[in-house]
């Protein structure tokens, strides 16, 4: 828009200026609800201040400050108003923790030819050790990291019990099992073969899980100046919180000219306002498992996965000729749909098309209005037969279940509330549509 304003004639400039002003107003209005519940807390953050000073000494440039928020922990606020396209944070590539840095470590030198251990696993092991290395270049960074990340991978028995019956329960159990198996394959083998590098008191299950949670919750995919796409830890930038309406969207490539990773804004951030970063297009289940939170606001990636069997028969129709396959449909809350009536009723078109075909309810030019209604009635009743049992399996919980509950139980209950909200919206949309027939 700015380029167009510079090259346009007077008449066009007037129109473009009005358009630009309106766009800025719209951008500023996005995500305001994120800050409404974010209450700044007064808290000692000497370690975080030391991290910023350390970063600035090594070339970090920032117009953000660290703040603590009730219910969200640490975050970063704009120290001055920042416009679209302006750089809020700039991190030198030399401070980015990646497999290129790993190549200079004794962990890499010891393990590069050992049992085909991947660079990702080596980074976990490096982080687990570096946390306790008093001489580490990254000590100010590790000093700011929490003792516990409180992600779904750390859920206790009560937190998992509260999730029983949900797909998230299965996801977390599988992830925990995978990590435990990975740990058992590494230890005590590494302690035996490399006792000076991998001390038994450091290489515990709890420390290994901590390192895994660090990389899951804080890592970013970055294209380094070498052109290699790597999973990285980026000191200081890890303090930015996620939002469904983030200020920072595009930050995944090191600038070849400055050899730094820049974080430009995609929407304005006023002075004193919390600046949010996008962690990616993730559903709540992923954010709970690997980050330990559910975002405020409507997350368009929150879905109910619906696996439907499909079958294809050969012309002779014999049982031996039937082949089965499965298709998965992602169903969002119907309040996110732009259309609540015919022909979608707030439901995903691919799901409706699939069911219409499976139930023999296809619509063509010759289909009468009465037949269309009757066909859609069959489809909507089928959807209700799928989602009503889901809703019954998620009874509403009163607030007494949250009083005095541990963090993992509260997060589990919040997730179930979200699932109930989505399923309830689907049931309500189908019921309302049927009542109007």
TrEMBL record:
InterPro entries (UniProt xref): SET_dom (IPR001214), SET_dom_sf (IPR046341), SETD3_SETD6_MTase (IPR050600)
Superkingdom in the source lineage: Eukaryota
Domain SET, first and last residues per copy: 62-280
Name used for this protein in its record: SET domain-containing protein
UniProt organism field: Sorghum bicolor (Sorghum)
